[in-house]
Design a protein that fits this description.
- Chain B: GO terms for molecular function: metal ion binding; RNA binding; RNA-DNA hybrid ribonuclease activity.
- Chain B: This is Ribonuclease.
- Chain B: Keywords: Endonuclease, Hydrolase, Metal-binding, Nuclease.
- Chain B: One of its GO terms (cellular component) is ribonuclease H2 complex.
- The complex is a heterotrimer of chains A (216), B (298) and C (22).
- By secondary structure, chain A is an alpha+beta fold.
- Chain A is built from eight helices and nine strands.
- Chain B folds into two domains: 191 residues, Ribonuclease H-like superfamily/Ribonuclease H (Nucleotidyltransferase, domain 5), CATH 3.30.420; 57 residues, Arc Repressor Mutant, subunit A, CATH 1.10.10.460.
- Chain B is built from 13 helices and eight strands.
- Classes of the chains: A alpha+beta (216), B alpha/beta (298), C alpha+beta (22).
- Chains in contact: A-B, A-C, B-C.
């Protein structure tokens, strides 16, 4: 059988022990491209992880007493599930009316998207990007672009702070991140950081929203 | 012969030598070079020098170190013991080149072929004798490759010594034959007492002479080929015999610089201009610079 | 992680043959 090598946060290890299927690899939409992508869902803590893969040719693994071709290295990093919910809310938003969430988050191509409905504090999350109405104790949601842009702006600011804290080279010259002198950072202007952070966030939102965010 | 150093690490090269007879630092000496184990597909190749005062060549001849090829293994051992006894007659030194060193030299990215390895080893041993203070005036070498070119290179390297490179030198010059005996004794012993770094379960040392056409050797190679790791390091991976078995029995491996890369058909120039449909947006440079992309399948 | 691709997913006697060294 194929074997995969993953870098995942330590605390996830007992998730797979605590309950059967504690960790599930599922295919969901990539909110930027609309294509499929692999995610990891932690059923215990109801937490979503995106999977990035380091792929370079001519590598393989020795894993204990076996060899595994390909030599791929997978990374699982926590991801804000609101990016995925947003994908469905924007799609439904085109109809311009309030809808119950379980009619919005549906996808015959990626049926596992219903797992997103199990996320804790879902209503709190949704308030960042939707207008809501309550009728007979049932909640109805409608996508709000204004609120979403405000939410995304916060994301960009958090990302700028993280880029600085991690000394990521945002200079316009595309250089390998490994070779740069720290004083380079000071010369990078605030605008470079914002542009870079916008670009990074745009990997998780549709093109149209990315353009709106850029103007915003 | 004490090969304990070799047994500690038989993946590189190790040098052994006798004490230098005092007389060899005073009187002009003749030095012979020869090697053993050039042809076999397994085990080390051993380069040896033997040197003795010109005035004592007759005594060396008297030892009956005739053409070493005509001697049996036990006769060689006996003669070697006698040379060791006669400490003020001959001195010797040898380089044991492990199969791993041979393979990695020949298969390295920059090829270092067997002839160059041989020439450099012989040169190194002659230099070693000079560094030990031996008054070498003549050197006789059994040829490897083209005698003239080899002779010229050695003569350039050691202008103050008379160098003679000749085929079958071990049958012509007793000091070369003595070197050949040292080399063969060392090689036989190294092969016989080979310490496998690989903890082989069904270890059997029944690999015959080690020559590629020896049926025992071929059978042993086939018995011990491992699809991922090839062979134990006793084997010279760069030998055709070994490669033939690997090509048949072992898994394929691709390297960054493996030839297939170059053979890959060059794309038609037009293909660079045809748009390949809506190109999926490239990942952000943060990921590109780190070789990361979204996993779309497991 | 090996700097070459072994084109197989299979058992391999790694403990016996592979002695990592710097």
């Amino acid at each position: 059988p194929r074997q995969h090598v993953f870098l995942i946060p330590e605390y996830l290890k007992d998730a797979s022990k605590k309950m059967k299927n504690g960790l599930m690899f599922i295919k969901l939409v990539n909110p930027c491209s609309g294509e499929g992508a692999i995610y990891l869902f932690n059923m215990c803590l109801k937490q979503l992880f995106e999977i990035k893969v380091f792929k370079e040719k001519h590598h393989s693994w020795f894993i204990n007493e076996s060899v595994q071709s390909g030599g791929l290295l997978h990374f699982a990093t926590p991801m804000d599930p609101l990016f995925l919910l947003l994908h469905y809310l924007i799609k439904a938003g085109k109809e311009g009316k309030y809808q119950p969430l379980d009619q919005v988050v549906m996808d015959e191509v990626f049926p596992n998207c219903i797992l997103l409905l199990k996320l804790p504090e879902l209503e709190k999350l949704l308030r960042h990007v939707t207008e809501e109405k309550e009728i007979d104790n049932k909640k109805y949601y409608k996508y709000s672009k204004e609120k979403t842009l405000k939410w995304l702006e916060k994301k960009v600011s958090q990302t700028v702070a993280a880029l600085k804290a991690n000394h990521v080279n945002v200079g316009v010259r595309v250089q390998s991140a490994a070779f740069f002198s720290s004083d380079q950072i000071s010369s990078d202007k605030e605008e470079d950081f914002i542009r870079y952070a916008h670009g990074l966030i745009s990997d998780y939102i549709p093109k149209e929203l990315s353009d709106d965010l850029s103007k915003y | 012969m004490d090969l304990s150093e070799l047994e500690k690490d038989n993946t590189g090269r190790s040098r052994l030598s006798s004490p230098v007879p005092a007389v060899c630092r005073e009187e002009p000496c003749v030095l012979g070079v020869d090697e053993a184990g050039r042809g076999p597909v397994l085990g080390p190749m051993v380069y040896a020098i033997c040197y003795c005062p010109e005035s004592r060549l007759a005594d060396l001849e008297a030892l009956k170190v005739a053409d070493s090829k005509t001697l049996s293994e036990s006769e060689r051992d006996r003669l070697f013991a006698k040379m060791e006894e006669d400490q003020d007659l001959v001195g010797w030194a040898l380089d044991v080149l492990s199969p791993n060193l041979i393979s990695t030299s020949m298969l390295g990215r920059v090829k270092y072929n067997l002839n160059s390895l041989s020439h450099d080893t012989a040169t190194g041993l002659i230099q070693y004798a000079l560094d030990q203070g031996v008054k070498v005036t003549q050197v006789f070498v059994d040829t490897v490759g083209l005698p003239e070119m080899y002779q010229k290179r050695l003569q350039q390297r050691f202008p103050e010594i008379t160098v003679t490179v000749k085929a079958k030198a071990d049958a012509l010059y007793p000091v070369v034959s003595a070197a050949s005996i040292c080399a063969k004794v060392a090689r036989d012993q190294a092969v016989k007492s080979w310490q496998f770094v690989e903890k082989l379960q069904d270890l059997d040392a029944d690999y015959g002479s080690g020559y590629p056409n020896d049926p025992k050797t071929k059978a042993w190679l086939r018995r011990h080929v491992e699809p991922v790791f090839g062979f134990p390091q006793l084997v010279r991976f760069s030998w055709r015999t070994a490669q033939a078995i690997l090509e048949k029995e072992a898994e394929g491996v691709t390297w960054e610089d493996s030839a297939t890369e170059e053979q890959e058909g060059h794309r038609r120039i037009t293909s660079y201009f045809q748009s390949e449909g809506p190109r999926a947006r490239a990942p952000h440079r943060y990921f590109q610079e780190r070789g990361l992309e979204s996993a779309t399948a497991l | 992680l090996l700097p070459c691709e072994v084109l197989a997913n299979r058992f391999a006697p790694v403990g016996r043959f592979f002695t990592p060294a710097i």
